[in-house]
Every structure is written in structure tokens, then in C-alpha cells.
Amino acid sequence: MVTVILGGGFAGVSAKLRCRECVLVDKSDYFINTSKLVDVVEGKNPEYCKIKRRADIQAEVISVNYRERKIVISEGQLHYDKLIVALGYVQDVSRIKGAEKFGYRLSTMEEAMKLRELNRKDKTAVIIGGGSLGVELAGVWKGKVKIVEGGKGLVSFLGSEVSKYAEKKLTESGGEVIVDAQVEEVKERELVTSQGTIPYDVLIITIGISPSPLIKNSGFQNKGGRMLVDKYLRSIDDENVFGVGDCAVGNDYFWPMSAQIALQSGEIAAQNIMGKNIEFTPKQEAVVLRIGQEYFGTFRGKFVQGKTASLLKHLAIINSNFRASLSNFTQLTAPVT
After folding, report:
1. Considering the chain, what percentage of its residues have pLDDT values greater than 90?
2. Number of C-beta neighbours around residue 235 at 10 A
3. Which of these, 196, 293, 299, 309, is most buried using a 10 Å CB contact count?
4. Helices in 121-218 by DSSP H: which ranges?
5. DSSP state of 34
6. Residue 7 Rama label (left phi>0; alpha psi -120 to 50; beta)
7. Hey, what CATH topology would domain 99-205 get?
8. Does domain 3-91+210-282+314-329 have CATH number 3.50.50.60?
9. Which residues contact 308 (CB under 8 A, 6 or more apart)?
């Protein structure tokens, strides 16, 4: 039986660790821990973000035909018996007029290095999006910074206590937070919002996170682009296909896009492919943010800050990096036609 894993991020690597005979397909021999790209913008070593792991087949995934159990990759075609789709997310800002022309993003090392250079020049930055990435990026920006958020507060998914704390810390450090502001258009050096026009030197967009377009393009039933799966992580279209991590979501339940849950889902899918029948119960144990050198967030639903939060953050990074590196010890091949 040939089992193929598409995507070598946290979910794909987690599946590979549990199912060593699975064939991992990815376009590179490392992946980027995107949560650490903020550190690169701040000035830290770029290599810190790279998690090296070996792909059994190094190629780009073009399409999946689940009816014929066929995958088209840049090197040819693969046929499979079982498939785990772990293709993660992309950032799509096309719905904001002018965003692609005038805005910067932060999802690749190249983008991080560009922002790193701009950060050294004492530029005024406007950040669209008050989620985790936007908040942490504002916390390391050396010049003046404003966050523009369309909702009621920053990191609102973590609850009001964390949201208020994040806003307090940013404003104390000289930042400005603008909430309930809908972005209407990006112009050169001007951001047009429902609350008026905001000038900027550098505009950084942290919203528009979307699942891999391959899900929709391959004909899988989806919700917001995420493959719909049952409680065992099987695609509702085909029981031989499993969806994990950021590119999938439960047919009647939800999980957020996060490395923790990606790791969990990859492991469960691999076990179910090997004959188990385990229901997936996503658990978001800890979410920790950093503004400057101040760590804070939630652990099992409770607010944490200071040394406790810092320890949780660093333990999570060590654990995920270590697990990813373990995949280097096994390499398999599958016939490419």
C-alpha cells in the first residue's frame, strides 16, 4: 500500500513521524516556522526560523485527482492508495484594492528580510490586522507603528483579558491601536479606512490567510477553502483521503489554524490510516504572544504572563522543532511516472 503525505509543515511532519512508511512530498528540504519570522524582522538570525526536514520526494504539488487516486507534481505523477493532505495556507490579499501593489506581507523568509531592512530605517509602519502576527510585529517595530483592526479589539479570539493587555502594552510602548476600522483601499503612502485616511511609510498586511487553493481546485468539498473532514479526519468526499492542519476543518466542528493543532491532527490521521479509529479532538493548550520582551497569553483557558508565558513559548518551539527534525532519519521513495 502506498500512502502519500502532501506538505511537509507541522501537520505533514507529524504524520510522517507516526507513519514512517508514508511518502512525504514537499518542494523543499526545510520549512519555515512562520511564527518566528517576527524575530527575523527584529534582527535575529534567519536560520532560527528554518526547520530542516527531509522530503522523500522534493517536488511541487500541482493537483490531486482523488477519483483516480492520482497526484500531479512538478516531477511527474504519483499514484496512491491512501493520501494525507497537509498543504497548509497561503496569504491572499487580492480582495483589498491596491494591497498587492503597495503592501508588504510576512509569510516567507524573503519578505521577512525586506521588512528587516525597512525596520532599521526608523520608518512609520501601519499594520493591517490585529491578530497574533500583527501584534507581535508591532511589538518589534523600531519606528512609529499603528495597528488597524476591523474587529472590536486585538487578538479577540483569546478573550477580553488578553485583548486589553495587548492593547495596553502596545500603547505603553508608543504604538497606536485603531479598532472597528474597515480597510477600503490601499494607496501609495495612504491607507483608506472606514475611519479615515492613515498615512504610512511601510504598510504590512497580516490578514487574508487562506487554505491552499489546491483544495478547491481539486474538487474537494470545503468550507472557506478548507477541506471538510469527518471526526476521523477523513475527507467527506473520499474515505481514502485525510485532511489535516490548516487546510482542513471538521464537517460539523471547528479548529483554529495553529501549529499545535496541526501536529495533533497529523498524528491522528496517520494512526487512522494504519488501522486505528481515533476521533480527533483538537486541543489548543497554550497561545503565547510577545510584545518586545513581554510574554503573555493563555494556558488552558487562563491568562498567563511573564516567566510562565515565556517558558511555555520556548518549550513549544523546542518541541515542534525537535519533532520536525526527527523526520530526517527516514527517507522513502514512491514511483513517479
Report:
1. 84
2. 23
3. 309
4. 132-140, 160-172, 214-217
5. G
6. left
7. FAD/NAD(P)-binding domain (3.50.50)
8. yes
9. 299
Cα separations (Å) of 312 from 113, 200, 245, 253, 266? Answer: 27, 35, 21, 27, 22
List the chain residues with pLDDT less than 70: 320-337
Residue 47 buriedness (CB in 10 A; 0-12 / 13-18 / 19+): exposed
Which residue, chain included where needed, has cell 491607507? 191
Residues 306-318 have pLDDT tens digits of 999 999 988 887 7
- Spatial strand order of the sheet with 76-79 comes to 61-65, 70-73, 76-79
Model confidence pLDDT, tens digit, residues 27-38: 998 888 888 999
Tell me which residue of 118, 140, 119, 137 sits closest to 127, measured CA to CA. 137
CA distance 186 to 205: 10
Q: Report d(CA 60, CA 221) in Å as an integer.
A: 22
CA distances (Å), origin 311, targets 158, 164, 307? 19, 22, 6
- Tally the C-alpha atoms within 13 A of residue 78's C-alpha that lie toward its C-beta: 28
